[in-house]
Amino acid sequence: MSLRQKYQTILTQLAPAGAVGVSLALGAAAPAVASEQPAGAQPSAVEKEKVSERLAAVRDAVTAIDQTRADAAKADGRLAWGNWGWGYRGGRGWPNWNNWHNWNNWGNWFRNW
Amino acid sequence: MPQIQLLVVQPTPFCNIDCRYCYLPERTNKSVVAEETLRNLFSQVFVSGWAGDGLSVVWHAGEPLVLPVAFYRRAFALIDELKPAEITVRHSFQTNGTLIDDAWCEFIGECGVNVGVSVDGPRHLHDLNRITRSGRGTFDKTVAGIRRLKVRGVPFHVISVLTPQSLAAPAEMFDFYLAEGIEHVCFNVEESEGEHRSASFAEIGIEDAYYRFLSEFWRLSAAHPGKIHFIREIDEAQRNIFRPQNAGFFNQLATPFAITSMDWTGNIATFSPELLGLKSPLYGDFVLGNVNRDRLVELAERPLLSRMKADIDAGIALCRGRCEYFSVCGGGEPVNKLFENGSFATAETTYCRMTKMRATDLVLDRLERFPELMGGREAARPPGSASPVG
């Protein structure tokens, strides 16, 4: 199974819960504290892949799931759920990279959840 | 045309406490920004067309609440008077919380101010660094302020600076937030900025400690649903990872004037707000001009800005070419590159390894191990989902 397929399978299960549900599910999916190691110490099967490839595969999977959902919603005449609930905006309108860390922007997009 | 999204205004450089890790150089100076300086700033921001349709104003870089409520009543009224109707302005205070009382709560609630309180966890962790000038801990006063906000129903988030001691105590940190009813948390790490050299960054294994802290804090949060609603480092990592290919992104800290900072004298700087007040052999004091004598729009043409931007862009190009995490970071934070590596035109920093890379590793690890780790754990199924994978 390709990385993208692996991620798509997992995310298809997780995504209907929205951003909060995804975070809760992944947060709960923790190994026992004593045995947990940061990445690189105990490589999982996919960690031999480059991080950039893993990230690209996640984005491919998200895009594919979004498209599937959008198609289904269109067919049903419903609104698409829209980008996982993480409050994306198109174009250059919102700085998702490196917002200043001595402040917190949740007040501006948190309501999108 | 530049677009200002965040305006950091220093109402006073003074701070009533004296945290050991503070990078602000003038925190004993009790000067206050003049009304005329505020008028020159905001009138120019609004006339310039740089404000877009929404502007966040953060009153910071000193303790904002050492000034009276009346100061902000006048300042907010002045800004409202200057503001075109179509522009929304949202004010924020980043405060140490020690001066919050009913009058502040009333004003904050009335004006819808976004409040961030700096608190480093339970007393023995908070008072390690957040102290008065006489060396006493500030925990009691900070927590009294937080409790006042809670009693008065004023929403707030906290920013906690993580040190080696708190990184080793995620459960204690979590229990503290729960006990105080804190629902929105942001974690900073103790950084090297200006004269301050981070003791945390010198610790062996600090990156792994950060990973383990976030991992355990996230697990605890998920095990107590409805208590902690927002963990900035986890939520932002997920937001940056789980995005579609076509999501528009840019690096606010590397974009001229996206963040614009003004000190109490009217000096203007951009990129990382911490730069204003610091000095560098390469860029002097980072000041592009002063709103009391210069036109804001002309600052975009200053040679210093071009030089800083060229170096920041060179640093981002290095990141793009060599960093596996570029797509979730966008080239890092200029201030950390400068004070850790000596130049904007550099790539990786300890700061980015901790806060960007390890947080990304954590989310990817959880995602990839989800099937094996969740095998049979029905209780942790996401609400509304089908049965767990695997």
What tags apply to this protein structure?
heterodimer, A: 113 residues, mainly alpha, 4 helices, extended, B: 390 residues, alpha/beta, 12 helices, 38% helix, globular, disordered C terminus
The outline of chain A comes out as extended
- Tell me the helix content of chain A: 40-55%
Helix segment tally of chain A: 4
N- to C-terminal separation of chain A?
A: 32 Å
Task: Give me the count of strands of chain B.
Answer: 10
Task: Produce the secondary structure layout.
The complex is a heterodimer of chains A (113) and B (390).
Chain A: H1 3-14, H2 18-28, H3 51-76, H4 106-109
Helix pairs in contact in A: 1-3
Chain B: E1 6-9, H1 35-48, E2 54-59, H2 69-82, E3 88-95, H3 102-111, E4 114-118, H4 123-126, H5 139-151, E5 156-162, H6 164-167, H7 170-179, E6 184-189, H8 206-223, E7 230-231, H9 232-241, E8 259-262, E9 267-270, E10 289-290, H10 303-322, H11 334-341, H12 350-374
Parallel strand pairs in B: 1-2, 1-8, 2-3, 3-4, 4-5, 5-6, 6-7
Antiparallel strand pairs in B: 8-9, 9-10
